[in-house]
Amino acid sequence: MEIPRVIATARAVALIEQLRQSHGPLMFHQSGGCCDGSQPMCFPEGEFRLGGSDVCLGTVNGCRFYMGADQFEYWKHTQLVLDVTPGRGSSFSLEIPLGVRFLIQSRLFTDSELTQLSPLQEIP
């Protein structure tokens, strides 16, 4: 059994469904810092321009989840857990006008899980 690199809480899944109804297919990109700190951002699918240094960690509730390769080097030993918290984030992410923001929690993979991880996905 493959272990997913990114999963979502029930709150995140509910918010994704709400956003999908308004905006159609979605994608996530884990920001690497700069003006948005380091938070996951949700966009309509294809509206965030991916670069050659981005990697796709997998899908969360049917949405591709991307991260810069350099940042992935720091996070590759952890499972990312997409969650939601009240409050206004400082990004262009779709959930911001709703008074909530996505956030990442993480946990270290066990040695056994590291041998069972889902492979990184090809970027279309």
What does it look like?
This protein is α/β, with parallel strands linked by helices and about 120 residues long. The chain has one domain: Hypothetical Protein Aq_1857, Chain: A. Helix content is about 20%, strand content about 35%. The chain has 3 helices and 7 strands; from the N terminus they run E-H-E-E-E-E-H-E-E-H. The protein has helices spanning about 10-25, 70-75, 110-115; strands spanning about 5-10, 25-30, 40-45, 55-60, 65-70, 80-85, 100-110. The strands form 2 sheets. It has a 4-stranded mixed beta sheet with strand order 3-2-5-4. The chain has a 3-stranded mixed beta sheet with strand order 1-6-7. Strand 4 (about 55-60) and strand 5 (about 65-70) form a beta hairpin. The longest helix is centred in the first third of the chain and has 14 residues, at about 10-25. The protein is globular. The two termini are about 25 Å apart. The mean pLDDT is about 90.
CATH class wording: Mainly Beta
Cα-based radius of gyration, to the nearest Å: 14 Å
Number of domains: 1
Envelope shape: globular
Strand % is 35-45%
List SSEs in N-to-C order.
EHEEEEHEEH
Mean pLDDT: 91
* Spatial sequence of strands, sheet with the most strands: 3-2-5-4
Give a count of the beta strands, DSSP E runs of length 2 or more: 7
Number of helices: 3
Assembly of the depicted chains = single chain
